[in-house]
Amino acid sequence: MPAVKLTKSELKRQKDALKRFRRYLPTLILKKQQLQMVIRQVEGRLEEKTRQRDETLAAAGAWLELFAEPFSFQDWLTVKGVETEPANVAGVEIPVFKSMEFATQGHDLFLTPPWVDAGLDLFAGLARLEVEIGLLRRQVALLAAELRVTSQRVNLFEKVKIPQALESIRRIHIYLGDQQTAAVVRGKIAKNNLLDRLEAS
Description:
The chain is of the alpha+beta class. The chain has a single domain, classed as Helix Hairpins (Orthogonal Bundle), CATH 1.10.287. The chain contains two helices and two strands. The protein has a two-stranded antiparallel ribbon. Strand 1 and strand 2 form a beta hairpin. Helix 1 runs antiparallel to helix 2. It is rod-shaped.
C-alpha cells in the first residue's frame, strides 16, 4: 500500500475517493451482469445457427452426387454484399447481421438440370449461415474482452481500492486521535507547570 500522509486534507481526500469508488462499483457490477447475460444470449444464437448449418449440410449430403455432373455452376452465385449494422451493448459496439445480397448469373433452364436452382438456394443459405456464425463469434469475442476488463475493474475496486481507502482512513483517524490526545496532555502539563511556577513565586 502506498504511503499515506497522516493529515486532515488526506483524510478528506481518502473519504472522497471511497465515496467515488462506492458510487462506481454498483454500475460496474451491473455492467458485468449485463455483459454476462448478453454473452449467454449470443452464445445461444451461435449454437442455434451452428446447428442449422450442420443440419443443412447433413441434408445436402444427398446432393453430393449431383454436384459431380460435368458443368460449372459455381460462378452462377456470387456474394454481392453483406450488410451489418453497429449495436451498442453495455458500451461495446458490436456488428449485427442485417442482410446479405447475392448476384446470380442467368442460366438456360432448358440446358441445366432441374435441381440447379434448389442447389443455388442451398449454397446461398449456407453462405448466409456462415456469415451469421462469423459475426456471432465476433460479437462473443468483443463482449468477452469487455467482460474481462469490467471484471478486472470490479475486482480492483472491491479487493484493492475500497479496502485501501478504508485502511488509510482508519490509520489517519488513529493518528489524528493520538495527536489530539497528545496535544491535550501537553496542554495539561504546560498548565500544571505554569501553576507550579505561579505558586513558587
